[in-house]
Amino acid sequence: MPATATHCPYCALQCGITLTPERRGMRLEPSDFPVNKGGLCAKGWTAAELLDHRDRLLTPLVRKTPGDRSSPLREAGWDEALELISRRIKSSQQAYGPDSVGAFGGGGLTNEKAYTLGKFVRVALRSSAIDYNGRFCMSSAATAANRSFGVDRGLPFPLEDIARARTVLLVGANPADAMPPAMQYLDAGRANGARHIVVDPRRTATAAGSYRHLQPLPGTDLALANGLTHIAVREGLLDSDFIRDRTTGFEAVRAATASYWPDRVERMTGVSADHLRETVRMLATERPAMILTARGAEQHSNGTDTAQAWLNLALALGLVGRDASGYGTITGQGNGQGGREHGQKADQLPGYRRLDDPAARAHVAAVWGIDPDELPRPGLSAYEMLDRLGTDGGVRVLLVLASNIVVSAPHANHVTNRLNALDFLVVSDIFLSETAALADVVLPTSQFAEEDGTMTNLEGRVLRRRKAVEPPPEVRTDLEVMKALADRLGRGRFFSDDPRAVFAELRRASAGGIADYAGISWERIEAEEGVFWPCPAEDHPGTPRLFTDGFPTADGRAKFHRVEHRDPAEMPDRAYPYVLTTGRNMQQYQSGNQTRRVSSLTVALPEARAELHPDLARRHGIGDSDLVELRTRRGRAVFRARLNPGIRPDTIFAPFHWVGANLLTDPALDPHSRMPAFKACAVAIAPVPEGTT
Ligand SMILES: Nc1nc2c(c(=O)[nH]1)N[C@H]1C(S)=C(S)[C@@H](COP(=O)(O)OP(=O)(O)OC[C@H]3O[C@@H](n4cnc5c(=O)[nH]c(N)nc54)[C@H](O)[C@@H]3O)O[C@H]1N2
Ligand SMILES: Nc1nc2c(c(=O)[nH]1)N[C@H]1C(S)=C(S)[C@@H](COP(=O)(O)OP(=O)(O)OC[C@H]3O[C@@H](n4cnc5c(=O)[nH]c(N)nc54)[C@H](O)[C@@H]3O)O[C@H]1N2
Ligand code: SF4
Ligand SMILES: [Mo]
User: Fold this and answer.
1) Domain co-membership, 644 together with 583
2) Which of 49, 462, 569, 598 could form an SS bridge with 301, CB 3.0 to 4.6 Å?
3) Which regions of the chain are under pLDDT 50?
4) Does one domain contain both 340 and 427?
5) What pLDDT, on the 0 to 100 scale, is given for residue 690?
């Protein structure tokens, strides 16, 4: 059997791999794809273990006693499972209306699946209730980029440009753990004399290798960015020609940042005024320079404005649209970029169109063969939908595809209670996740090496996911499931379960939109090692670099947006005196439903460890590897302590790859993006004597 070239199932780097069948299983090797160039992280190297894993879901599962979620799950045939689901959808919609049935999607789904899920909810269910886990991931940076640039493509340039930048500011980004093969671009820059500044409350592996590490209190990045813009104004470091010719709205930002004096910002953030000055001077004079944000800056109840403040700084210094220079956000999930373009967002139609835009509705309805008036209106964002599950006017029958919200949603005990209040829960997954374990019906789905489709990586490069092996006999793709359900709902004629046909339709639906895929074919992706959107026609080369000539805004200019610091929704006080922040470890992925089953990863990192400063630990009588209880207003969880002299003494970091961190997190939402405050809430700690948990 020949080797198949495809991509890693996990993160947005989408490293190229080859899969070669062996006597038992598959051999997985990195390929020379232009993104990873032969590199892979530990998760990628071991991904083939997922394929024939003994925990694989191999048949649909239903409850032994229908309607009783405390009765055990038993194996069932597809007919039985699909019949049950479609019956419950129909009866719920009859009794409570179309919006009583909804879906929660994921940024790991291929473009074809994400597109079909958005269409399935609007066309087969005729419901407005759909959103997805990308709301918890990219929504803040996306909102800021949309309002300033008129487009949200995470990186507006290819990764290779990072190697050519002389100054790189990484804000709340830890690629050394989150995307190790991407470090080759940063390393190449450093080898050529580039200087990197990392803004992170922890001294991460990324920070350790950088020129300068700035260590702000979590939730104060907006003040930091405004402080840098303030210094740029005072020291005459602005790019006035760029501001005049290519932007609007700077005066409001100048006014807003006037009060962000360096010593005030030092007090707010903990970053010294000298380091503030050094940082902005480097960005302004050691060019090309870029500012990259990731979840550390964005996952806050002011995440949109925080991303905006960094974007404002990049515009004020005239970095945007120049070679190897600019502002970007580092997208996280495998198809986190494509997954936010084609309609699984509550307010969105394919091609990054707006569901409330009459022209967009008309275009997409025509492609779908329906009347535009049949399209529902925008629905609620992810957490808002979850918060209302099972209530009057809320969703009562929920389909979850490609997310493990019991582990990954904020205020997870509340979310679990809401899931338990549903009339009916359907979860499609590869393995029985913590969320699937609550379901009335569990559907076994195919995974990366068992399916064809496309993924769009963090650079906006559309890639081919290629099938290397047949799925187990009773396992179906999500496309097949949605088509079969649509058939049972009398809407089957609108759907296809062939990914190539779906992609052809996606091209038409996206044509003329912001994320325009019209000119991208599977053949071109093959021949060109990926095609960058927008690509409006087959003879268009695709767009590796955006903003070189203008911005896709009404007047072609980028818009500054005035933003002011706000404290995190929850501040430390006497009862909860420290700040809890959360994030990632290198060896685990997201909710861990995949990577916690990979033996070498779990041996390397068997449990969640909360990181705290040795001084803080000593004050509470906690030693390294002791058990520590973290308590917030929402819940408590026990972690093993990891003493880390590189973290701020007022801050505790906990990974969210296991049930625990999200029992603690604050679901306060950003008013613009509806992003929860994963990265800052108030926490208390106490030692736990061994043997008492
Ligand atoms: N190993 C691994 N890699 C992954 C993933 C995974 O689960 N595991 N997930 C993928 C996905 S979906 C995503 S979104 C990306 C995320 O990639 P990153 O955003 O790089 O990862 P995080 O660990 O969530 O957050 C980055 C850093 O933000 C810091 N931070 C916390 N609070 C603040 C703050 O208020 N301000 C600042 N400046 N920094 C703060 C944390 O200490 C952390 O080091 O990773 C992708 N890659
Ligand atoms: N405290 C805290 N919480 C966080 C974050 C944080 O930094 N801190 N980060 C947030 C971020 S950035 C993200 S992206 C989310 C991620 O959190 P989740 O949405 O829970 O992400 P995954 O664990 O990747 O869940 C994907 C699930 O889908 C399954 N799956 C994989 N491929 C497919 C497929 O093709 N079809 C179907 N049906 N299933 C599939 C996997 O087995 C897995 O169970 O977590 C968020 N939660
Ligand atoms: S960096 Fe991301 S895409 Fe690359 S091997 Fe690791 S998890 Fe896979
Ligand atoms: Mo993410």
Assistant:
1) yes
2) 569
3) none
4) yes
5) 76
Same domain, 21 and 95: no
- 246 and 99 in a single domain? The answer is no
What does the alpha-carbon distance between residue 673 and residue 305 come to, in Å, rounded to a whole number? 10
Lookup result for tokens 């460890």: 609
**Lookup result for tokens 């009866």:** 91
In the structure, which protein residues have their CB atom closer than 6 angstroms to any atom of ligand 3?
8, 10-11, 13-15, 36, 40-41, 43-44, 179-181
- For 274, the token pair is 């000298």
* CB-CB contact of 597 with 628 (8 Å): no
Residues 269 and 379 in one domain: no
378 burial class (0-12, 13-18, 19+ CB within 10 angstroms)? middle
**What are the distances in angstroms from CA 628 to CA 169, 625, 646, 687, 690?**
34, 9, 19, 4, 10
Q: How far apart are CA 53 and CA 9, in angstroms?
A: 15
Question: Which pLDDT belongs to residue 693?
Answer: 63
Ligand 1 centroid – CA 328 distance (Å): 15
174 C-beta closer than 6 A to ligand 1:
yes
Paired strand residues for 292:
170, 328
- Closest-CA residue, ligand 2 atom 13, reads 137
What pLDDT shows up at residue 2? 86
Task: Provide the pairing of β-strand 195-199 with 212-214.
Answer: parallel
Is 451 within the bounds of a domain? yes
pLDDT of residue 618: 98
238 contacts 232 by C-beta, under 8 angstroms: yes
Q: What pLDDT digit, counting tens, does each position of 38-90 carry?
A: 999 999 999 999 999 999 999 999 999 998 999 999 999 999 999 999 999 99
Residue of the CA atom closest to atom 31 of ligand 2: 402
Name every residue whose Cβ is closer than 8 Å to that of residue 607 and which is 6 or more positions away in sequence.
639, 640, 658
Task: Extract the tokens encoding 86.
Answer: 């479609």
Structural domain span for residue 173: 139-329
For ligand 4, the distance from its centroid to the CA atom of residue 243, given in whole angstroms, is 32
